[in-house]
Amino acid sequence: MTENSIQERGAGISVTSSRNTRAMIDKAGPQFDLAYQSGVMGLSARPMKERFVSIDLGGSNKCVLDFIRCSYLGLDNHPEIVAGAIDAMTQYKSLHWSCARTRLNFALLTTLENELADLFQARVITYSSVLAANMSALPLIASGHLTGNKKPVMVFDRFAHATLAFHKATLAAETAVITIDHNDVSMLEQICKQNPCVAYICDGVYSMGGAAPLEALLSLQQRYGLFLYIDDAHGVSLFGRQGEGFVRSQVPGGVGDRTIIAASLGKGFGASGGLLMLGSNEHEKLFRRFAIAHAFSASLNLAGVGAALASAKLHRTAELLRRQIFLGEHIEQFDRLCKTDQSGLPLPIRFIKIGDETTTISAARTLIDRGFYTSAVFFPTVPQGEAGLRLCLSASHTKEGIEGLCQALDEVLRQDQEIRG
Q1: Where in 84-197 does DSSP place strands (E)?
Q2: Buried b vs exposed e over 382-393: b needs ≥16 C-beta within 10 Å?
Q3: pLDDT tens profile 2-17
């Protein structure tokens, strides 16, 4: 994506003028080729015990400890959640209804949305993915229908997830779209002072590590009426007595009519799909009638509905707290053994910056050979020259596995430094 700087608004602000997909592909293509050829991307695998998977490496199978998946509580292969998916299909004798949700819905889906609404203390609409939820929400916000018929200036955090940032050009046809530096609360406040209606779009927990400055954002909301749209896909289930998530657990009382929280049912929650937490009946009616993925697409499939219902039930038990505690212990252990920019944060994502794309891919392949699968991350996921390894910690990892990973990381990174001189 290319952006033109607006100097008169001050440093750290830009607006989207055009999206150059061709240039992005041309720049990133060689790295993707190398990653696939090296056997660190596009792998086929079968799950094994704990967080081990058996991956296919050119016709031979290798057992590796998986630090790729975002199932931070280890619920994605929980037997009760798997059983919930099977029971739902058995009960309804179907997987999917091919119709828009404005016409017909599985009764079990209504049950799920009511259950999630009670669990998270918000009005909840589910979607087939968080991408579909974001695609549905952002144009409605830009229209002004959620902000007293005043079209807001749409302000994006520069590190907002690709499923948010992708929609900038569409939103720019409706209203002004601005991008500011990551977590730049001062710049956001300046924009709030200069404009009567502002909406801020960001992640709750960022996919490459770190989190939104929620306390400061809520303060801006209180002082200026800032509308907040926060994608908490990576934070749901990990925080809160009932797994409300990083954001919802810190928003006092109800969600309100100036906040929307997006979340995943397929990461910490351990099922499939996405959702929106809304704060008013009027907002819910608007979304159920005009949100693109609700009015013109089908719902979460029935296996996902059954799995999510089973997970929601688990979220009301002591097992949720036990898994949250295990995850916290594993995060603390990793931080003791391996220092990163995210050390000390109670979040399960760690990013080890290497810089060079080729070196990063080589390091990821060496770790696979040593029995550990990590994500080699490079442009366009991160800026050019800032490639590195992303690690996702889980409640179902073991202390021995984390210790082994940290030892292998130390050796691989030390070897790289020696080679570079």
Answers
A1: 123-127, 153-157, 177-180
A2: beeebbbbbbbb
A3: 333 333 344 567 665 5
3-state secondary structure of 134: helix
- Dump pLDDT digits (tens) for 8-45: 344 567 665 555 788 999 999 999 999 999 999 999 99
Nearest to 367 by CA among 48, 71, 70, 66: 66
Give the relative orientation of helices 107-120 and 302-314 as an angle to the nearest 10 degrees.
30
- Alpha helices (H) along 202-279: 214-224
* Residue 331 vs residues 135, 138, 202, 372: alpha-carbon distances, Å: 32, 33, 24, 17
Which H or E element spans position 323? helix 318-337
Closest-CA residue to 246 (of 225, 267, 271): 267
**CA pair distance 84, 397, nearest whole angstrom:** 24
Take residue 4 and report the two structure tokens written for it. Answer: 């033109």
Strand partners, 260: 229
